[in-house]
Every structure is written in structure tokens, then in C-alpha cells.
Specification:
Two copies of one chain form a homodimer.
Chain A lengths: L7 E2 L11 H8 L3 H8 L7 H14 L5 H8 L1 E2 L1 E6 L5 H17 L2 E6 L5 H12 L5 E6 L2 H9 L6 E6 L9 E5 L2 H13 L6 E4 L8 H12 L8 E2 L4 H12 L6 E4 L2 H13 L9 E3 L16 E3 L2 H17 L12 E3 L11
Parallel strand pairs in A: 3-4, 3-5, 5-6, 6-7, 8-9, 8-10, 10-11
Antiparallel strand pairs in A: 12-13
Helix pairs in contact in A: 1-2, 1-3, 5-12, 6-7, 8-9, 10-11
The first copy, chain A, binds a DNA duplex through helix 2 and helix 4.
Chain lengths: ~350, ~350
DNA sequence: CGTGTCCATGTGACCGGTCACATGGCTTTG
DNA sequence: CAAAGCCATGTGACCGGTCACATGGACACG
């Protein structure tokens, strides 16, 4: 069970061991407790003493030992992000946001990837993260792997989740999300207003059958009296999106496609192109995410901008609030919004 | 100096405190040291005793305390990745590789982003990472920020770096890299063989003026007696690549462009398109990285495949080796290789 | 059969911080 | 001026592991 873990020496072999709080105390002529007070910004320290101690700290190059602090105080100053894949744009951006906010608060950030929603993977991740030293947990639960971890997490582990809107009800955790429902509705409405008879949808993996994206899309269609085509599912891999696109490309009735994310849109576009159908001349496509390059694609992609970085920041604030009990200033989460570019146009006159 | 850090309680307030090694010992009727031995796979434990202890551990849901272990043993079982940006593909993939390998070895992974190479940012990162509890350090030094950290790192902090080939000489650290020189040369040669008079180059930010990419490109050109155009510099942001592309697009002599990465290629392609120049009809472009979607772009991108995940794994092996002194099995690093797709073709007949 | 060795196990100190409480000086107040 | 209170500081125990060393029994060997 206990894997032989290659350890990494903390006390560096350079010269003597790193100075401790007691070394500093001795050099400054005070007690170690006073040094500790200085370190913790205790109000009850004589300004002269404080300066004196800070001087010595500087001179000795003293650095507090995180492990000792965590052990002694019983609180860890860390946050661990559980993530399925660090290379997907939405995930990576959310991580970036968490890290940024954590850094500003002086918290360390750990990363733990759950490779899949297979029980083994989920269990290992949960065990790892149940260690008190992992600190607060931010689960990026955009998919089944993350959601699985969230569900399996013991109730006494402090955690919040970044999810998709509407997904994953039932757990008592704080859920932070970007509500794409409205934006999905806007996108669909926009396509309809262009004159398309209906809008097809290629979905990315989702925890719930009914993501907010799908809900916004479906509602809009129904309300407009437009036919609601079956959702075409795709995976995270671009190839599956391409295959989904091929199916759609073969159907001459398809003139507008709302894609689960920008990469999906790209692959669908490819399939369309291979079938000799022009974008946006023959078919309009809309993506999701607004990846940095989307504006520079050819044609520039009409897509829904999602502020994942802010989502990450909000998650950090939430976990800190949960764990300290101190309410944190609310993080402004800009709602996802449709950015119209070149990949959408009125349907060709039949 | 010491930021007020919001702490995260390690001892969960659920029921009683988490069981410690001594609780386990008591319940199993042995001494805490024996439990410790079981935990560390010490050979000198009676098999029956071991099973007994493992049983109790299971029953009590005991989890070892990382902080206590680190403190007591003086070794941390963590690795910290210093990274400039988690959202760029190459960076994110390398991180993914490090995490994967670390997870397999039971090491925790921390992430610290350095936002820029400004002295403040670099200093903070270095301080953070100098803490023994950060464990071994993997610096992703693809750019000036990472390189700055690497240079500023005290010699007694164990670290390795993922760099670009040929960059960043002079530090005594292990440097792991994907040698793109040959692939860059291959790409250039390929374009020349297609009949292009020369090949232009849009470079991404680099620590060194002379990255391996540029070297491979330049050498090939010189050796072929082709003119060597000035390198066009671009930033990480897509917009700057687009602007670089605009410059090139205006020059009718430009018929082949080697781009610093795939996103750059995409933006350059856009600029070309706006100038009415077809890819690959009028201009051929080659990217770098082989982002997952590159094969599904329109036209599919000819690019150089880089195995960043393996690079990350190799970095982890290197830092573990450095820190434990135990040589690690070598990680196979596939050399970057040219993948020919649709964005390259012979120049239009003049 | 005495004794040396090895094995399984236990004991006490320690890692570097924090916490709870004690102390002594100075100021405030009745 | 004594009692009370606050402030600056110090002392000892403790967090949950690990390390170094001690102990006692089983077995082997001369």
C-alpha cells in the first residue's frame, strides 16, 4: 500500500543546517516566541524588537519551515487542485486563476490529476486529497472524473468545485460556475435570427445529460418552434469531434452548428470543409471558450467567451472562506458572452 | 514581509482528531515505532504483526501526516514546478508529464507561476521555492521568466530545468530539452526541396538569441546557399504573431514561413489570408508543437511534433535522481519530428 | 551450555514551529 | 499608594512523525 517514495532532503547539505527560529532568537537576543510573534505579525511586539528580529532574519537568510508550521499550528497553508487534464484550455485557465489568487494570499498550490472516472483513479485521488496537508481542495469538475472525486470526497474534507452550470446537484459542496445558459441561448437565437431553420449541437463530455449549454440551446429552439435535433456527442479528443462533424456534414439540412468548445468547432469545420461545405457560406458554426487564437482563425470563430481565470479566482476565494470561516470579497464572474466573428452568416438561399 | 496567510485547518473538526500513529499502535497493541516501520516497509517486521497493523490502519482510516513526516525525517516528498503560464500548450503538457511521473512515485506536485522576468516576480518565486518544503524544483525555462528564476536560484536548492536546446548555458543545473534543431533543419530543408527560394521565420520569445530552432533553420539556409531573411520576432500572444504575419504577407517574395509554434502559425495564416494569399497555394507555413487540433485545421498544419509530456517525465526523473542520488531509468525522449500535412506545397509558378 | 548474533520490538529525544500560560514592568485608577 | 490592567516577553508542552539506540528472545556455534 505504502509506495516507496523517493524522498527529497529538506535540510540542505550546504554548510550547517538552515537557521531555525531559535537561531534567530539567539542572534537577536530574544526568545524564540518573540521571533514567532514577529513572523506572525503579532501586534504585541515592540517596534524596536521587531526591527531587530527582522534584521537578523534578513542577515541569516532565515526561512520559516512550512512543514513545522503546518504541524505545530494544525493548519496547512495550501490548496490542492484536482484536475483531469492540465492541457485543455478551460482546465488550464482555471488552474491559472486559482494559482494566481492563492499566490496573492501566500498559499501554496498543489496539483493532482485524476486520469479518469475509473474507481481506482478516483479512489487514489480521494485518498491523496484527504490528507489534511493537502489543505483546501478545489475540484475542477467539468467532467465525470472530477465529479467522481467530488462525490467520493469525505464530508470532512473542505472542498469547493468548479462545475458546469446546473450540473452535479446533490453534493453539499460550494459549486462555482460560469453560467453559460444565457450565452448558449443567445448563440442559438443569433443563429436563428440569421435565418437558419434550426441549430445542431455537438456536445463535449459532460457530467450531466442536461448541461446549461444544452438547456439554453434546447429552450431557445423549442420556444422558437424550431425542430430540436438530437445532440451529437463528442469526446475531449479532437478526432471524435471531427467524426461528429462528418456525420453532420453529410446531412444537407444542417446549416448551423453550436459546438461544445472551440477545438470541437475547429474539427467540425474541418469535416465540413472536406465535405465541400463552406463556413460560413454553407454552414455557420459557433464555438465555446474563446480560446486566445479564436479571433485569428480563418474564418475567425464566433464563440462564447468564458472567463475561466476568474472562475479559478472565485474558487480560491470560496475555499478560503469555507475553511477559515472568514467571508471573502466576492469575485466578479463575468457571464459568458457571445462574441460574433466570421464563422456565422445567413444560410445560403435555397 | 510575512503576508497574513489565511490558514487551512489540518485537523478536521469532524468527530475527534484524525488518528495518529500512536492511536494505531494502541489499537494494534504494538509500539508506535512498529507502526512507523510498517508504514515505511521496513524489512524487520513480523509478517503477522504487519498484517495486524495494516488491518488497524484500514479500520481506523489512518492517513500519515505529510507535514509531520517531512519535519521528522527532514525530507520532503514533493516537487514544485516553476512555470510562467499554465495555459500555453507546451508548458501545460510538460506540467502534465511531471505530474504523471510524480504521482507514480508518490510525490506531491506543487505549482508556482512566475508572471514575468521582472526582478520582483523572480525574487518572490525564488524565495518561495527556496523553502526546503518545496522539495525538488523543476523549472520550466522556455522563456526569460523561467530562465531568470533558474539563474537566481541558490546553488543549494536542488533543481533541474526544462529548456530549449542550446539555451541557457552557464548554470550548473541539469538541463533537459527536446532538441528541435534537427527538426527545424528538416522543416527548412523540406520547404526548400518543395522549390521555395528561401524560408522566413517567425520566432516566439526565447531566452537566447540563438535557439536551436533558429540554428537549424539558419544553418540549413546557409548550407543551401539560400538567402537568410531577418528573423521576425513575435510574443506569446497571438496578436503579435498576427502582426508579424501581416508584415510578411505584404512581401511578395515570402513564400514559405517557419513559425515558432502552432498558434503563431495560425495567426500568420490569418494575416496571409487577409492579404489575399492562399495557404498553401501562395505561401507554405510550418508550425511547431503539433497541438492536438493541428491535424484538423483547415488546411491541416504541417508542423513539428514535440513530446512535452515525455519532457516532463524526464525532468521528474532527473530531479529525483539529483536529490536522492539514486540514478533513475532514462526516459526516452523522442526527438521532435516533422509531420507533413497540408499547409505546405510547392510555390506557385512565377 | 555459555555466548555471540540476528531479529522483532520498544524507548526517548528531536525536527521547527505553535499554543497556552506565566512573569515582570509600567501605566492607570480609585 | 495599593490594586488592577495592559503590554512585552519568556517558558514548557505539544503537533505527528522519524531517528538512534536499547532491550529481550531465539537460534547458532564453539
Amino acid at each position: 500500500m505504502t509506495g516507496r517514495s523517493s524522498g527529497i532532503p529538506a535540510r540542505r547539505r550546504g554548510r550547517e543546517a538552515a537557521p531555525s527560529i531559535r537561531d534567530v532568537a539567539a542572534a537577536a537576543g530574544v526568545s524564540y516566541q518573540t521571533v514567532s510573534r514577529v513572523l506572525n505579525d503579532s501586534p504585541n511586539v515592540n517596534p524596536d524588537t521587531r526591527r531587530q528580529v527582522l534584521d537578523v532574519i534578513e542577515r541569516l537568510g532565515y526561512r520559516p519551515n512550512r512543514a513545522a508550521r503546518a504541524l505545530g499550528s494544525g493548519r496547512s497553508s495550501a490548496v490542492t487542485v484536482v484536475i483531469a487534464n492540465t492541457t485543455l484550455y478551460g482546465y488550464a485557465s482555471t488552474l491559472q486563476g486559482v494559482e494566481e489568487a492563492a499566490r496573492l494570499k501566500g498559499l501554496a498550490v498543489g496539483v493532482r490529476v485524476v486520469e479518469s472516472d475509473r474507481p481506482v483513479d478516483v479512489r487514489h485521488a480521494v485518498e491523496y486529497v484527504s490528507d489534511p496537508n493537502a489543505g483546501g481542495i478545489v475540484v475542477i469538475a467539468f467532467d465525470a472524473a472530477g465529479a467522481g472525486v467530488l462525490r467520493a470526497l469525505p464530508a470532512d474534507v473542505p472542498a469547493v468545485a468548479a462545475t458546469e452550470a446546473g450540473g452535479l446537484t446533490g453534493t453539499p459542496r460550494s459549486m462555482i460556475y460560469l453560467d453559460e445558459r444565457q450565452a448558449a441561448a443567445d448563440a442559438t437565437k443569433y443563429l436563428l435570427s440569421l435565418g437558419h431553420r434550426t441549430v445542431h449541437h455537438v456536445a463535449i463530455p459532460s457530467e450531466t445529460g442536461t448541461s446549461a449549454r444544452q438547456a439554453g440551446w434546447r429552450d431557445t429552439l423549442e420556444r422558437a418552434g424550431a425542430p430540436v435535433p438530437a445532440v451529437v456527442p463528442a469526446g475531449w479528443d479532437v478526432r471524435s469531434a471531427y467524426l461528429a462533424g462528418r456525420g453532420l456534414a453529410a446531412d444537407p439540412d444542417v446549416t448551423a452548428i453550436l459546438c461544445g468548445n472551440d477545438d470541437t468547432a475547429m474539427a467540425v469545420r474541418r469535416a465540413l470543409h472536406e465535405a465541400g461545405r463552406d463556413v460560413p457560406g454553407d454552414v455557420s458554426i459557433v464555438g465555446f471558450d474563446d480560446v486566445p487564437g479564436a479571433a485569428y482563425w480563418t474564418p475567425a470563430l464566433t464563440t462564447v467567451r468564458m472567463d475561466f481565470v476568474a472562475l479559478g479566482r472565485a474558487c480560491l476565494a470560496a475555499i478560503v472562506a469555507e475553511v477559515t470561516g472568514v467571508p471573502q470579497p466576492a469575485v466578479e464572474l463575468a457571464p459568458p458572452s457571445l462574441v460574433v466573428r466570421e464563422s456565422t452568416a445567413p444560410p445560403r438561399q435555397a
